[in-house]
Each structure stands twice: as C-alpha cells, then as structure tokens.
Amino acid sequence: MILMNNFQAEPAELIQQEIAAVEKVIKSGWYILGNEVRNFESAWASRCGISYAVGVGNGMDAIEIGLRALNIGPGDEVITTPMTAFATVLAIIRAGATPVLADIDPITALLDPASVERCLSSHTRAMLLVHLYGQVRNMDTWIALCKHADIHLLEDCAQSHLASWKGKVAGSFGDWGAYSFYPTKNLGTMGDGGAIITNSEELANQARVLRNYGQSQRYHHSELGLNSRLDEMHAAILTARLGWFDFFTARRKEIAKAYFDGIKNPLVHLMAEPVDSESHVYHLFVILCDERDRLNNYLREHGVDNLIHYPIPVHHQVPCKSIRRDLKGLIHAEAHAARCLSIPCHPQMSDGEANKVIEVINEFK
Fold first, then answer.
1. What's the pLDDT score for residue 163?
2. Is the pLDDT of residue 76 over 90?
3. What is the full DSSP assignment across 292-335?
4. Where are the transmembrane segments (predicted)?
5. Averaged over 252-262, what is the pLDDT?
6. End-to-end CA distance of the chain
7. Conformation bin of residue 33: beta by default, left when phi > 0, alpha when psi is -120 to 50
8. What is the pTM of this model?
C-alpha cells in the first residue's frame, strides 16, 4: 500500500538527530518553557521572516489564544470557511466569538471574496483566512478587503508551512498567523504542537501570558488563561526537523508536478495549479471526482491509500447547523466536500510510487 504518510521511511540521519534532541532534553532536566522552546521560537520566527513566534500546545489553541489576545470574543463575529478542519471554527467558539461562514472559490477551495463581503456585518471583527491544502493565493485582495472593512486579517496556516506570496510567508500578512505542528503537517512533531507568529510585540507578550494560565509573572494571574505550552521535547524535535524542511518541501513539489503532468483521466479533475512555485507547499494534493466514493474504493483496492479533506463541511456538523452563513448559501463548499479526495504526496514517496499512483488513477473507468 502506498501510504498517505510514511514516518517509518524517514531518513535514518533525521531519526538519529531526533533521538539526540530528545536525549538532550532528558539530560537537561528541564521539560517546560526552557531553552529548547526559546530556540525553536526564534528559529521559526526567523524562517517566517517575522519578529515573534510563541509556541503553544496545538494549532487550535493558537487560533483561540490569537483571538483572545486581540480581545475578540462575545458579541464579535469572525468570518471563515466551512471547508476546513473543525478546529478552525471550534477555536472561534471557544474564544467566545461567533463564527460566520462564507463560501469558497470552486477552483481553489479557498474563501471567495464576494461571499465574504456578503457576510460582513456591524459585528464583524475579523476574517480568519484558511490557507487550505498548503496554498497561499491573492493576498493583495484579502489585505484590501480587510482594510476597507476595517477588520482584522487573521491566518490559519495549519497546512501552509512557509508557503509564500510575493516573498512573504503565510501568517505574515495579517495581525497573526496560527500554525499547527501535528505529526502529519509539513513541519510536524511526534504529538501535538503549535505556534502563533506576529510582528506585534504586544500581541506576542499577551499570547505568552494566555498560554501559561494567564500569568503575567509566576503566581500572578492577570487574567484567565489556558494551559497550552509547547513543551521542550516537541520543541527540540521541531528544531531537528526544521533542518530537513526545505528538502522535504521540495520533494512534495516534485511529486505534485508529476501529478499535474501525468494525471490525464477525464473522470478526475485537478485543483488549480499555483501561480508560482512558492505559493503552494502541498500539505495535501487534492483531486476531484463526481464518483469520489467509487474512486476512493478503487484506489485502495489497487494499493493506493487516500483520505477525504473534508467530507462534511462545518455547517453540516451537528453543533454548527445554526451558524450564520452567506445568504446565497454555501453551494461550492458543499459540492467540493462531495467530490474531493486527497492522494499520497509526502516526502518519503519514491518516483516509482508516484508513477504508480498516476497509473492507477488514469486506469480508473
């Protein structure tokens, strides 16, 4: 089976570096908010071309903490997409704010600006842009829209590690960017982890307070915070993996190019190609098929793993059926959810495996 992810096939050199990183933490005797976290925060901020990174427990907490750091909460609306991991909307709700769902562009599966404009109200405080599947597109449009509406531009970068637009990295366009370091991410650890990146010293300091029980200093709780700290072990692993990031990302792009060049089945449609090589990092390579479920089974029967991201849009989830949305409906999100299928596109894939995926898809009838 050609797997969606294959951690057991990672380079032996990387594995030894991770073991050494873990051993270093164990021998240090310091496991929470120490030098490893500080070193990774500095390294990640530098790679993102931004002033501050604040390590937190996971990507969902990064969004919640970011919203709370901007005092976005009860009575405030945040516009986002129904085509995302549930954590995006759950974080808005946990912050006390109200999510509002806009439709997507059927070509990219990213938010549609016209739909976002229809969702604006006097209560709108922010738009949370999800760089879905690893792609960053049309940021000039989003910057102008948020400026004109006088709302915060926020970025969910859980799938878009270091994807860039006109030389700027995902998460650096708005007030903050929220990253996840879940194991399957382009930069992932061996468990949960996340970070907020920002150019605002005030926001970064507030995020540090909120992640650690709301402590302004030890035992002095200036407000009610969370327990959401990136720990030393995961920070050390992430630092080790960061040294392999460019190599792994380049490999994802090679596989994606092979798919764009090789998949020629009229029953299978490809998502829009990126405008340049830096704007998509292919956390996921997604194809579309009107007979998605039959293709899903066919691929598995022929040794190709696959997943659906995401089969149930947010507004069809039980707790979210009453969430306000574009009055024209979310028809493109619903259509995408019924047709989308993610195929293997990870750094450990061989050329032979990529060619096998192409061959199997092209033989689907």
1. 98
2. yes
3. HHHHHHHHHHTTB--B-S-SS-GGGSGGGTT--B-TT--HHHHH
4. none
5. 98
6. 21
7. left
8. 0.98
Q: Which stretches of the chain are assigned E, i.e. beta strand?
A: 52-56, 77-80, 98-101, 124-130, 152-156, 164-165, 168-169, 176-180, 194-198, 215-217, 220-221, 269-270, 285-288, 340-343
Q: Tell which residue, 139, 125, 114, 110, has the closest CA to residue 79.
A: 125
Q: SS3 for 55?
A: strand
Mean per-residue pLDDT for 197-214?
98
Instruction: Report the Cα 185 to chain-centroid distance in Å.
Output: 8
| Residue range(s) in the chain whose domain bears CATH number 3.90.1150.10 | 245-362
Residue 275, pLDDT > 90, answer: no
**What are the residue ranges of CATH 3.40.640.10 in the chain?**
7-242
Nearest by Cα to 284 from 138, 173, 184, 140: 184
CATH class, domain 245-362, is alpha beta
The CA distance from 233 to 259, in Å, is 36
Span 267-287, average pLDDT: 96
Distance CA(110)–CA(127), nearest Å, equals 13
Q: What integer pLDDT is reported at residue 173 of this predicted model?
A: 98
Q: Which residue has the tokens 């995020």?
A: 207
